[in-house]
Amino acid sequence: MSVQLFDLTGKRALVTGGTHGLGMAIAKGLGQAGAELIVNDISSEKLLNAEKEYREAGLRIHSYEFNVTKEEEVKEYVEKIEKEVGPIDILVNNAGIIKRIPILEMPVEEYKEVLDVDLVGPFIMSKQIVPKMIDRGYGKIINMCSMMSELGRNSVSAYAAAKGGLKMLTRNMATEWARFNIQINGIGPGYFATTQTAPIRKEGHPFNEFIINRTPAGRWGDPSDLAGAAIFLASSASDFVNGHILYVDGGILATIGKPANEP
Fold first, then answer.
1. Cβ neighbours of 210 (radius 10 Å)
2. What pLDDT sits at residue 261?
3. Is 159 a catalytic residue?
4. Average pLDDT, the chain
5. For 116-255, where are the alpha helices, taking DSSP H only?
6. pTM, two decimal places
7. Mean pLDDT of 113-128
8. Which of 54, 77, 111, 159 is catalytic?
């Protein structure tokens, strides 16, 4: 198999929320495969810091401050990006939030906020970008799903509802747009070592022990573990892959788990 299948030279990739964490890890992977990067955020400070980090890594980067939940704002900036940078070949719908609140304690407004960012945001972004992809007869969309697209967990009802919905939105996008040579797929990360999970990854912490015991690979994921999956779904190697959710979870979804004292 030729490595050119995974070459993104000459492609432009827009990664929403690509200023930190898993979004940045994915963007860096796409950039290292040759893509010109565009990232967005609602924080100018995060954008400035991210730009510096991308450039220090030798990657071509453009940043734009806009809110993925505001349709008119998205429309304006998509047009601006295509005019200033060029056609958007790859869209990674990564921007998202989570609120850990039990169902009976969660205000409806906060429930809707999570759905708005995690589910409506990808709908708005894709709706504004896909017509141009259709005109060009080419495009790749990667929706950031989650293991919560398949499983429930205490206190994350809104997040799980949004990510479950995003899985089905991915499949419906593929149903409608595959015939235009647009591939729409998802990535479902498992549990990853990020700054957000640092407090619960300390040795002896019950959740750290739970995740290591629950994951067949026996470890937390490193953000760089997502790069290969993203490059595959963004490249010509996946030209006949559509509506698929690729879980990068160390095998968690493959097993019922094991007793804590089992080797």
1. 14
2. 66
3. yes
4. 95
5. 121-136, 157-177, 206-214, 227-234
6. 0.95
7. 98
8. 159
